[in-house]
Amino acid sequence: MNKRGLASDNNAGIHPVLLDAIQEANEGHVIAYGDDRYTARAKELLMQHFGENAEIFFVLTGTGANVTGLSALTHPHNAIICSDTAHIELDECGAPEKNTGCKLITVKSADGKLKPSMIMPFLHGIGFEHHVQPLVISISQSTEMGTVYKPAEIKELADFAHGHGMFLHMDGARLANAAVSLNCNFKDITTDAGVDVLSFGGTKNGMLFSEAAIFLRPGLAKDFKYIRKQSMQLASKMRFMSVQFIPYLEKEIWKTNALHANRMAQLLYKKVSALPGVQVTQPAEANGVFAIIPKKIIEPLRERFFFYTWDEQKSEVRWMTSFDTREEDIVDFAETLKGLL
User: Fold this and answer.
1) How far, in whole angstroms, is CA 32 from its chain's centroid?
2) Which of 66, 106, 180, 228 is 20 to 30 A from residue 201's alpha carbon, by CA?
3) What pTM was computed for the model?
4) Domains located in the chain, CATH noted
C-alpha cells in the first residue's frame, strides 16, 4: 500500500464514490466536449451553489482555471495584483504571465491575505501609457498559508476593486476547506461577497481531476469558450470530469472531505504545537500546518513522512492533511517528530 504523507492534498487518492461515478459514466456513447447530460446536471448543481447567473466551464487543471479565467478579464497591458505567496506567482511556472501577457504585481503578506490598504500603493500610473494598468486583484481561498478570508474581508476587497474599475478573481482550489472552516456555504464567500471570477477546485478534495472556471458577473464569459479551446483546456471526454461534481455536490462529499481534512490539521496543530523546538507560524484555519523545526531533523523526518520545505532559509516546513488522512497518521507523525527532537 502507498504510504500516506503530509506533502499535499494532491497526493491523496480519489474518493470511492467519485470513482464509482466515473465508472458509471463509462457506459455507452455521449456527445463529446460537454454536450452531455452529466455536464448539464453538474452545471445545474453548481448554479444552485453559486447563483442562477453563474456561467460554468470545466477545465482540466487548477492552473488552467486560473489562467483562462484571468485571460478572460485582461489585456496584455494590464497587471494582476496578488500576494507574494499566491499559487499564480509561485507554483504555475509563469503560466499566468505567459498566457495573459500581463505583469503580476506581488504584495508581501505574512499570512497570505491581502487588504485594500496593502494594494493601494500599487495603484499608480493609471491612464499613463508607460505603466501597466492594474485590472485584477487575485486572492486564494483558503490561502497558500492555510489561512482563510472571512466573508467581510472578501467583500471589502471586492468593493475596493470595483470602486477602482477592477475585478476580483479568486483561486478556490481549496474553497471547500475554507467554507467548512467558516461554517458557511460557497455563495457566502464568492457571489454574495462580490467575487467576479472563481477557479473552483475539486482535485485537492477527492476528485480525480476536475476544476471549473466560474463567472459570477454576467457578461464576463462572452468569449471564454474560445479562450478555453485556445488554452488547451477543453476536454473531449468531459463527462468524466463533470460527472464527479454530481455526487460531490448532491451527497455533500465536498463538505465531508473538507471537514475531515480540516479536523486532521487541527489535531496535527495541537500535537506539534505542544512540542519544544517546534514553532508554528500560522493559524491552522484550513488543512495546512506551517512550522519552523530544527534543520537537522527535516530529512530524517521526511524519510518517514514525505512533506515539503516551505522556506529553506527559515527552516519552515508545510504539512498538509487530506480527506483520507487518518488519526493514526497524525499520532505516528507527532511521535516520530517528538523522537527526533
Assistant:
1) 27
2) 106
3) 0.96
4) 15-250 (3.40.640.10), 253-340 (3.90.1150.10)
